[in-house]
Design a protein that fits this description.
The protein has 202 residues and is mainly α. The chain has helices at 2-31, 38-45, 59-84, 88-105, 107-114, 125-145, 151-173, 184-198.
């Protein structure tokens, strides 16, 4: 009987981190990250106030874990769709569309990932690494679409498409551009236009 109890306890410990992350992601989606604390999270999950500290040393560690989870949810599906695309232009469009769709569907998580205490005054090293993975996908998509471009031309186009995608996503999430209520068809058209402009002349 004692063995069963020990196994049950171990099972709970192994799954607590995932439960905490899922609860925290839901909280961020509903309220943003500014008011999230380890104690608040413990109350939500229904564990002692000290239990989360076995997995997150402090609030920053918790926020970092959430942001990295966000990057996994953004980059993983993007990489899969990139590999499944039938041609280079489709790969670039798909990569761009996935980024924009994620930002629009997860505005508060997106803010934590790109505009939070984890990115100011300097990027957290783990955030920098995660962003580099995503940036590399976009880079590979452009190279595949236009393999003959010069290094200088490539740099300009990469900067243009990234700046436009990120800027559009940010402005729309902050409701600073209208119609920010645009439907999916309109958002898809924006992505195609961004890709077209970035690769103009080819």
């Amino acid at each position: 009987m004692a063995r069963k109890s020990a196994a049950s306890s171990q099972y709970h410990k192994e799954n607590l981190r995932r439960d905490l992350i899922e609860a925290a992601l839901k909280y961020v989606a509903e309220h943003g990250h500014d008011t999230l604390s380890v104690r608040t999270l413990a109350n939500i999950v229904g564990v002692s106030s000290g239990a989360p500290y076995h997995h997150f040393a402090d609030r920053r560690s918790l926020l970092l874990a959430l942001a990295l989870e966000g990057y996994e949810r953004l980059i993983g599906p993007t990489a899969e769709q990139f590999q499944a695309a039938s041609n280079p232009m489709e790969s670039l469009t798909t990569t761009s569309h996935q980024f924009l769709t994620f930002a629009i569907r997860n505005p508060r998580l997106f803010e934590l990932m790109y505009e939070s205490e984890l990115t100011r005054p300097e990027l957290d090293p783990a955030i920098r690494q995660a962003q580099f993975r995503g940036f590399s996908l976009l880079k590979d998509s452009i190279v595949a679409a236009v393999p003959s471009m010069t290094e200088e031309d490539f740099s300009f186009r990469l900067l243009a498409i990234w700046s436009t995608l990120y800027g559009f996503a940010t402005l729309r999430n902050k409701q600073m551009v209208k119609p920010y209520e645009m439907d999916q068809q309109a958002a898809d058209a924006v992505v195609k236009y961004i890709v077209k402009i970035a690769l103009a002349g080819n």
